[in-house]
Amino acid sequence: MSEELADLRERYARLSLLYHVSNIIHSTLEPEEALSLILREATNLTQANSGSIVLINPTTGFLEIEAAQGLPQAAHDLKLRIGEGITGWVAKAGKPARVGDVRADARYVPVRPEVCSELAVPLEVQGEVRGVLNVDSDRPDAFTEKDEELLEGLAILAAKVIHNTWLYEQLRHKARMFESLVSVGQTINSTLNLDEMLHVITREAASLMAAKVCSLHLLDASRQSLELRASFGAGDAYTQKPRLAVDESALGIVVRRKKPLQIANVQTSPVYQHVDVAKKEGLTSLLGVPLLFGGDVTGTLSVYTGATYSFSNEEIRTLTAFAELSALAMEKARLYERVVDIEEQLRQNERLSALGLLAAEVAHEIRNPLTVMKMLYHSLDLRFPENDARATDVRILGEKMDSLNRTVEQILDFARSTEPEAASVNVNELLDNLNLLVRHKLQNQHIALRKELQPAIPPIMADATQLEQAFLNLILNAVQAMPDGGTLTIRTGIEGNSVTIAIQDTGAGMSPEERHHAFTSLLNSRKPGGTGLGLAIVRRVIETHRGTLRIESNTGHGTEITVTLPI
Questions:
Q1: Residue 141 contacts by C-beta under 8 Å, 6 or more apart in sequence?
Q2: 10 Å Cβ neighbour count for 205?
Q3: Of 41, 50, 67, 57, nearest to 91 (Cα)?
Q4: Is the full-model pTM beyond 0.85?
Q5: Pairing of strands 447-453, 486-495
Q6: What's the rounded Cα separation, in Å, for the pair 16 and 18?
Q7: Could you tell me if 133 and 53 are in contact, meaning their C-beta atoms sit under 8 angstroms apart?
Q8: Tell me, what's the pLDDT at 115?
Q9: Which parts of 388-427 are beta strand (E)?
Q10: Whole-angstrom Cα distance, residue 246 to residue 250?
Q11: At a CB cut-off of 8 Å and minimum separation 6, what does 75 contact?
């Protein structure tokens, strides 16, 4: 009876100790601090002189000391293979080991010369051995069967704490990566220059993944090779390597499969194309992901580490998401560059159209006096003897007037050939497209755009290209009137059987005389510091579309020009 009572008391004491230890080690979610607390309580409970918690590195497969107490500093760098030493045996067998004399055990790997006995138990996380809890003593046969039971109980508690701290650390890591992803997305989308954006992408990706080197390759026009367009952290050996063939390179696999690729060590990989460069640059593990836009691969984004590393599924998903953001931002930058090019083409077309109109008006002004000259020439009926030199002069004079008349007619015929080619046009859509073209110009001049486009505007029969040119001229004139910023308002509406388009600025306005001459002939423009070609083009385009122009303006109160076009 007394033995049973003593045994119950001992069990109660052991459970109380475990409960007490449980409260202590659950007091933190920091992985390093939790492991240190577990080890401290383990050595206290077993009255050990030293101890360690050894975990299996998922990347290398080695057993590495994560927490130590009473061991020399050099022991912290010890790495054991599974099955090596008493600790490795416990990790492989998944069973405890209690050794009374380590010197007599062939499995023992010396760590501290004073150690005489060792007790090691496995740390199982969700049924899988993830490490070993060790305690050592300077006394032989220091640990009893009850110590083993106590340490096994502690290991069960420790495994749960380790699992919880890992989960917490993973969640915290995910939160950090998500915050970084949002921040990086904002950074790359704030840049509109494509080359600058590519460098920003590689820099931010390297920071996000804590990588040694990050590189971005784009497919060439043939889609047969990958060209290095930007890198971060790479040396000359890497940046000067030749293009990568899609059919033969590791990154080509990423392009062909449209999926991420991970290589544990590029220095020994048979699929990596430039092993010598990897060795020279000190590159080890690689993670490459595709740059996808609209389901098509445009290139690859790669990160390298300096040491062997296994990228987690979460890290792969994070870099993949970052690559998708980058591909979208790159396409945005390309579109922006195309918009700028198109705007420049429109400006060039405006100049050519203006020159055409100017030539037509010059030809028209020449034709009238030329007609009079020809009439007077024929009425004079100048006749001279053939041997008279004046007869040759008269003939040449007539020929030159006829040649000049043909040139004038050709110019006028060319001008008449620019008559509109009518097709159904949605005015609201046309104005929206123009707004995209001038958006960056408005932003640069601090001009706010206000659109009041009436829905359900019926289509009109018109030449969309000529109308775009006319409205672009009106918008650019309004912008020129607001050099210090202001508000540009564009309205559409219906008046009877016509569509109205009003473009209003908050600029300096126009005097009555300026209003009177706003749409005058190219040759009679009174626009200071300019040619007046833009508004003359507008007048001609609107008139050829059987439309009208109305201008309302007062000095200091802005200008509103209304275009009316028949439905």
A1: 100, 101, 117
A2: 25
A3: 57
A4: no
A5: parallel
A6: 5
A7: yes
A8: 93
A9: 423-425
A10: 8
A11: 52, 65, 68, 111, 112
On average, the pLDDT of the chain sits at 80
Taking a C-beta distance cutoff of 8 angstroms, is the pair 207, 187 a contact? no
What are the structural domains of the chain? 20-171 (3.30.450.40), 186-322 (3.30.450.40), 339-416 (1.10.287), 423-566 (3.30.565.10)
Contact 134, 119 (CB under 8 A): yes
User: Who's near 191: CB < 8 A, 6+ residues apart?
Assistant: 197, 200, 329, 333
Residue 277 tokens, joined? 């460069």
Output the pLDDT for position 135. 92
Structure-token pair, residue 345: 């083409």
Run of H or E residues at 488: strand 486-495
On whether the CB atoms of residues 267 and 294 are closer than 8 A, the answer is no
Calpha distance 286→315 (Å, rounded) = 12
Closest CA to 215 of 171, 174, 251, 256: 251
Task: Report the interhelical angle of 145-189 vs 194-209 (nearest 10°).
Answer: 170
Give residues with Cβ within 8 angstroms of 529, minimum separation 6: none
Residue at 525: amino acid letter = S
In our burial notation (b when 16+ CB lie closer than 10 A, e otherwise), range 221-259 reads eeeebbebbbbbbbeeebeeeeebebeebbbbbbbeeee
149/121 Cα distance (integer angstroms): 10
**Which parts of the chain sit beneath pLDDT 50?**
12-13, 15, 417, 522-533
What local confidence, expressed as pLDDT, does residue 258 receive?
A: 92
pLDDT the model gives residue 505: 93
Q: Are 354 and 537 in contact (CB under 8 A)?
A: yes
Q: Tell me, what's the pLDDT at 261?
A: 93
Element (H, E) at 177: helix 145-189
> HSE-up of 254 (CA within 13 Å, CB side)?
30
